Amino acid sequence: MAGLLARLLLALHPRSFRSEYGDDVRALFLERWRDGRGPGGLRLRAHLIFDLLRSAVREWRDALGGSRRPGRTSLIGTDVRHLARWLARTPGFALSALATLALGVGATTAIFALVYGVLLRPLAYPEPDRLALIAREGMVSLPDVEDWRARGRAFATIGLYMPGWSLDLTGLGDPRPVATIAAEAQYLEVLGLEPIRGRFFGEDEDRPGGERVIVLTERFWRAELGADPGAIGRTLTLSGNPTTVIGVVADAADFDEIDAIGVVPLTVELPWTEGQRGTNNLDAIGRVAPGVPFADAAAELTEITRQLVEEYPRTNRGKIVEPAPLTEVLVGPVRPALRVALGAVVTLLLIAAVNLAGLLLARVTARRRELAVRSALGAGRGRIARQLLVEGLALGVVGGGLGLLLANLLLTAVRGMLPASVPRLETLSLSGPVLLFGLGAAVSAGFLCGVFPALRELRSDPLAGLDAGRGTGGRARHRALRSILATEIALAMALLATSGILIKSFERLWSVPLGFEPAGTLSARLVLPESRYGNDREAQTRAYGSIVDRLRETPGVTEAAFALSVPLVPGGAVGNVMLIAGRDVEANRWPGVRVRPVHGDYFSALKLPLIRGRVFDETDRESTQPVAVINRTLARDWWPDGDPIGARVALRDWHQFSDGPVWMTIVGVVDDVKALSLAEGDEPALYQPYAQRQVTWQRFGNLVIRTAGDPEGFERALKEAVWAVDPLLAVSQIRTLSDRRAASAGRERFLALTTALFAGSALLLVAQGLWGLVAYSVAERRREIGVRVALGAQPTRVIGLVTRDLLLPTLVGSAVGLGIAVFSGKWLESAIFEVSPTDPGVLAITVLVLISVVALASAIPARGATRVDPLEAIRE
Q1: In angstroms, rounded to a whole number, what is the distance separating the alpha carbons of residues 180 and 191?
Q2: How far apart are CA 815 and CA 825, in angstroms?
């Protein structure tokens, strides 16, 4: 192997260098290669190869320098021109080769652009590796963070914020809700961002009753205000309040990708957070101090949190703080899916390269008379090997260029298939690193395509081809082609098995029971502005009740309801702790529940099955006995052997803890729903009439209607029903529950679809390579087949003669491919749902599909062997 590699690398040098130094260089190379057997040997051998490549570049630069005679051309240029003429004479092979490379390079580059944009591209912050997301989903309060700052030293800065704080924007077109980030001044300091225009607000402005200001995101500033420099100082109307624009910040401030229009002072917008340790509605982000290991910073914060639990057990018991690197939090959930997709396309690229190598090797065999003539005229083996290597590289460059054009189109298609949960989608493009990757993939594929024929020529007798027309091809060439075919089948088998597992996983996920009927339902997000509805609980209830009544009167609407949350919307419900009358349970073991206030025909609108008791009706008002309906999970966990109907429960609400618990009577049990996603079961949940809710800050929620016809046609009617009650209310996120179901399976659908496309492409490449191999075998054995036909061989006998050579590579490739699929199954575990990564049914179907493709691909050229004219074949 080392000898062949040395000859191949020397073949890249000019002939003058090889004639003068070739033997000495080869001997030195082999001696140093043997020295690389010990520790660090891999690095030494890599340096050896690099030195010879650099020597080749230097020698060619000197050979083609000022001493070159006018009119003298580069030998490599001659090889490229010869390749162009050869491809022009064989357009079928040219199109097949370039299409194979373009498909492999294009698909690989497109998916790498996705992986780079989401996983590898650095975050747009100074020293992003020091950023830690300390708490999410409303787990901390402002006094908690103040204690963290006072007692801790491991974090240089900690900022508190609430993502997705909804405000109504009026005065810029139709009223509409907009998302903002309610944050402390330290939030932007933690991120290390500088204002693009104007300034940021300071700690002295972030206080209850302070002036309402906003720092706009660059996206909103450019899209809505035309990047007007004079926007600083302009007044926007947000939820009825004049708000002054004081600055513009980069879109990176919105790392949660909620499409926020800007950052507003936390305690100005949410004054109830000031001094309320039990108000756990906020998130926290921190920047680790220089020189402090991340693990030490996390441990320090965990210890402070434990101390606060001991000091404030009533408000802090159960709080969990688990700091995590910001990058991991953002991209961790999608990393397994992207790794699977990248592995699939890399496999496809390898199949394309191996397939093209087989085509080139077969073409070299067909050209052996030509190569023998070149050898007879003085071309050495190295010169011929270099010609073949240059041809492979040239094909790789041209095919790679076409692949980059294809990658741009594929990237647009992939972006459209991605679920909205994939972060940083706006960064997807053919950037510099992506283009370098695509070029490297193309050159590597071209080198792989050229090195196999080149190595074959270095080990063969070039003059043997002068007798090419009078014998069959060498057994060594046939073994090489069969090895290439086995490799293709193995790679295709692994990719096809992966695709089958992901398709079955998606089918299982799509068919899970939802607990409700999504067809025919439409939902919309609605928020009552604090400026007009504030703490007026009666006004809030009256507004939602009037909207539901209007919707009920709309022709075509059969049921209408309002709910704090609807299924398949993560984060919609509010967490709380439930007390059970008559139960002696330790304080830290009281059940945690998701509270879901509803109004109207909620249970019938979703066709949510009633298991026991009753659901709410018009008699359940604010002035009547408080009631509750619980889900199956809560009933099973706390009443496993009894009937929960009639039991009394209460919520330990932090805002009104001093008033004592408000006891509710359980009147019904309903089935669980897929509340967060298709892959997650329901949490313990408690439904209560919206009129009987215990807080006034729940001014947000979702309208749900069931229609007699297509629900998408009721979008305008839903808006008009809302505006008939309050013309300034903004309606958003109008979607059918069927659409939400599809979005919840977005990652699995993307993986199943992309791997199926790549597996299909791999099968086409295998079929193409197999067809070429059988056709080449027929051409090589034309005289033998003619003699057999002349002696009376039947067509079936001839077909069996041609195809029996495929049996061994097919079996070997299938066995190796199954081994690869089983070994790599562990990488699929985090990306599949209720399916074994080595599902025997899927693997069996994969084998049958691949064998069928092999049989069909070999049938046409094998059948052509039966039409060989025996007299013409013998005459040849």
Answers
A1: 17
A2: 15
Q: How far apart are CA 376 and CA 231, in angstroms?
A: 80
Specify the DSSP class assigned to residue 122.
Answer: P
The residues facing 596 across adjacent strands are 687
With beta carbons less than 8 A apart as the criterion, state whether 214 and 263 touch: yes
Contact 309, 283 (CB under 8 A): no
Measure the CA–CA gap between 100 and 675, rounded to whole angstroms: 45
Query: Per-residue b/e over 569-592, b at no fewer than 16 CB within 10 Å?
Result: beebbbebbbbbeeeeeeeeebbe
Residue 323 φ/ψ, nearest 5 degrees: -60, 140
pLDDT, position 66: 44
Cα 541-544-545 angle, rounded to 5 deg: 80
The answer to whether the CB of 733 falls within 8 A of the CB of 743 is no
Instruction: Give the DSSP letter string of 212-238.
Output: PEEEEEHHHHHHHHTT-GGGTT-EEEE
Low-confidence ranges of the chain (pLDDT < 50): 66-73, 468-473, 654-657
The predicted pLDDT at position 70 comes to 40
The H-or-E segment that residue 676 falls in is none
Contact 326, 287 (CB under 8 A): no
The pLDDT assigned to 36 comes to 62
> DSSP label at 826?
G
* Closest C-alpha to 424, from 119, 659, 81: 119
pLDDT reported for residue 806: 72
What's the pLDDT score for residue 378?
A: 59
Could you tell me if 739 and 486 are in contact, meaning their C-beta atoms sit under 8 angstroms apart?
no
Residue 793: predicted pLDDT: 65
Q: What is the dihedral of CA 807, 812, 817, 818, to 10 degrees?
A: 100
Whole-angstrom distance, CA of residue 558 vs CA of residue 283: 40
CA 358 – CA 376 distance, rounded (Å): 26
> CB neighbours of 468 closer than 8 A, spacing ≥ 6?
368, 369, 372
Our CA angle for 567, 571, 575, nearest 5°, is 105
Question: What residue spans of 568-662 are helical by DSSP H?
Answer: 602-605, 632-638
3-state secondary structure 384-415: HHHHHHHHHHHHHHHHHHHHHHHHHHHHHHHH
